[in-house]
Amino acid sequence: MKIAIVILNWNGEVLLERYLPSVIKFSEGLADIYVADNASTDGSIQFLEQHYPNVGIIRNTENGGFAKGYNDALEFVDADIFCLLNSDVEVTKNWLVPIRDFFLKNENAAIVQPKILDLLKKDHFEYAGAAGGFIDQLGYPFCRGRIFQSLEEDKGQYDDTREIFWATGACMFVRSKIFKKLGGFDPDYFAHQEEVDFCWRAKNQGHKVFYIGTSKVYHLGGSTLSNMNPKKTYLNFRNSLFSITKNLPRRKAFIIIFIRLLLDGIAALRFILQFRLRHCWAILRAHLSFYRQFGRMYGKREKANFILKYYIVKSIVWSYFVNGIKNFNILVKD
Q: Do residues 142 and 321 touch, judged by C-beta distance below 8 A?
């Protein structure tokens, strides 16, 4: 089985200098390593050529964000398994072995993620992916180990292997044939929640997504856009509506979108009360962009059997903000 690790980079020379060494050290003999550069204007390319001549460099002609950046780059990568890895991830010894073995033993596994821990607080899960992603009935994403901004301490409670709904783009393994079959990520997302849409489309076509808790990596997070950045608010709110439009049966999608628009209005009001007016404006912009692009998103609906049981809780918002549940194992008792 041929594995290719592809790190998407945009003006990330400092991150490459800091985190690429661990990828090289702990992947030797197990995977080929590439850096896909999104038309950086810093010294990223020169740094790689000087210090890591054995790392493949793929030069994208523009900064198309996460989605288009990977779509363009992976056209030039020959492998059975693509590992899409953020440039701010530190990997660990033997991180690839459990995932490689799982793919070899499970033909039905299309997409896999490892355990994602916080690089700055290594005994806690990290926001982007934690121990595997899920969504509620209204399409709000959350993770085992992370519900909204509440991050659990890693006490081995998620050292298992289990099917999940979505895998994080911070460290996603995907069979190359599945990636190509699905047409890659939706470039209209640019960044944020494109992996939720990708996994949702995969599941609508009968493929499975898994979490492997015996493989772990550490993610810095916020290197491109922090959680406090209004652009991230804009992309998250808009792209979530895109995914609902594309991946649910028509009647259900319209009902969920209507409810989501109302809840987004409440979120905008909350931002106003917190004097975070730029985030309120970001939600309004997200809605305007969604309205403009609704026809195109609707036209992208997959010709597949939509899965009806896509959620494990009805409302993560209600569970978290009203019932005060901040731990996944309390929220969902297997």
A: no
